[in-house]
Sequence to fold (324 residues):
Amino acid sequence: MRMVTGEYIKQQHSPNHVEISIPTPTKHEVLLKLEAASINPVDWKMQKGELRPFLPFHFPNIPLTDVAGEVVETGAGVKNFKAGDKVVAMLSIFGRGGGLAEYAVANKNLTVFRPPEVSAAEGAGLPIAGLTAHQALTYSAGIKLDASGPLANILITAASGGVGLYALQLAKLGNTHVTATCGARNMDLVKTLGADEVLDYKTADGAALKSPSGLKYDVVIHCAAGIPWSTFEPQLSSKGKVIDVTPGPATMWRFFRGKITFSRKQIVPLLLIPKGKNLAYLVKLVKEGKLKTVVDSRHPLNKAEDAWAKSIDGHATGKIIVEP
Fold:
């Protein structure tokens, strides 16, 4: 089996191609022949060593958690999948290998069926980005995706990125008015996917996050980086909440300070807790045409370094897909 490792070398951050044996699934795992995998920023941050000493536990490491493929073997404790089933899965970052390979093992609890209407690339884009957007909106912000809740004014920063595009589409399933920020080249796409207002982040109003209609935001799904609390605060409603999907030390400090001072306006760090039932829900939405995976680019496994570099560059529109 060919795979790409994410071994960290001080002067070299590109993946290395090597040969290893096909893994064997344990009791509660399925072995997948991969058809597509998608890159998330956490993948190359781990590979560069930015998350040490926590992740990964050891190098070399096979990156990528988000995959789609076909079941070829099941563990003794797996009853709901069989060889030949098409699936979407989120691989464990603590496990034996990730999605930059021809085969991978996935836990049955984070593996869901993929219907014929959902392509491998569409499915592979969903796990981290889609689940992050879903958790931010439903669990953290309390948005009901059946539109039964009260009207909420929402801002989504970096709305043309992987998480942002899913967050935009999911938000519009609820009773929401959505303002989105992105670069000028992606404004038409963001409007097409449902944004009520779009801000070019390079303009003065975009940098200030000011709604063109003067609305204050009840919820911000914050998918960008480098925006200080002082920019968010004046644009929030009286009980406005900023949900930071990539929280750093500044977010954690502001979060605890808000708790101590009983601030009505909050910033909340999001730590993803993936659930199979939520992944299955997202796949169902794609099948029904209610959610779209926007594919930025596709790359063969033997050119994975090109996909890797494109993700690190930080200007992808939607998901970067690697296909074995």
In short: The CA atoms of residues 176 and 201 lie 21 Å apart. The first helix runs from residue 41 to 47.
